[in-house]
Amino acid sequence: MNNNQVYTTLEHYEAAIKRLKDAGDIELEQVLAVLNTRDDVQKALKEQKSIPSSLLKKLIDLDIELRKNAVLITKAVNGKIPEQLTHWRESVQPSQESWWWKLESITPAPHPWDTWDWLWKCLTIIGWTANLSLLVNIATRFLSAGIGLGGASAVILPSILALLQANSSVTKSGQEGFEKLLDKLNVPKQFQQKARLIPTFIMSVLLIIFWFSLPSISDIYNRNGRRNRHQGYLGIAEQDYLRAISLNSDNVEAHFNLGSLYEEWQDWKKAKKEYNIAVAGDLPKAYNNLGRLYIKEKKYPQAAFLLAKGLVLANEKNINPEDRYSLFKNLGWASLKQGRYQEAQQTLQAAIGIANNPKVAKYITNRGSAHCLLAQVLDKQKKSTSLQEWQKCSDLGSRLNIDEYIWLHLANEKLKKRGK
Q: Is the domain of 38 the same as that of 86?
């Protein structure tokens, strides 16, 4: 017998081990094929006087692979019929040095912690399933209103990490790759199943942190929307507000800003929808804007109710004076339309008192409105002081404000009639 015979038997031995490793479930015939080809290799070695070191090296490597699979082979064989390997030895009668027929003897005894491997496996599967669900939720929020480059990066990176982590837990190639990594890190076998839970836990922590960061990211989009609107980029501002709401549906500021933008576009239906959501979040200025729309629709009782409640919230939350001015002014307007002139006068005078503060006046762009409304209230009461209010209405009003544009015409008519 020459070295070709040794080489051939080694090739058969290698092929048998490969088929065993590639099989999803190990069959008994596959195990017998490996053991039988190993017998052939041993027989060829004994009949050959000189064996090249390359062939010996290959044999040693293949034997190492067989030993690595000793646990799986033993479970596959003895798991179906207890002590089946012993029965095989009784039938084949291998020599004492044929260790490959005694694989159960080289299989290490199970560590006590290995009995809990089922628990770690279940926790790992539950963990990555929860991670994927959370990731889908986050990705959906970003994608629902369209995302920019930053948003795409925020979704893609966690997605890749989650899929890699799921691959290492589910697929056979992923599991083998992870086992090799753990072996290189010298992680003991009894801890390897527990170690699989670590990437899942880390990914869960990262995704939870990302989840709780969504409101902050939403606020960033909301601020971008305000800046773009101020610069005249209204379409971009709308997209920013929609993204802010998509990431955090409870962002009442974003709902209010989007409603204000729709109101500017005279899309009353959409504006009211966004204002109603902001009102549900107890945002005082949303009460003001929605109340103003109700006045425009001649729904005066509903407007008065909203504006009065908005003032209560404004006092509780100590909001800025310019928003309180608007609430008082519009509540006075609603009272005027209901014919409640005394209440309207008191409310409008409160608004004027706020606007007369020099520190506040520079932030109020419609100071003339309260005077125009108060002039109308005084006219209804037939008070001569209405002329002074019409004059202030004319002095402070702006034709760029749609309400004041109408009232300025009325003020000019009143002043012209009285020779002013």
A: yes
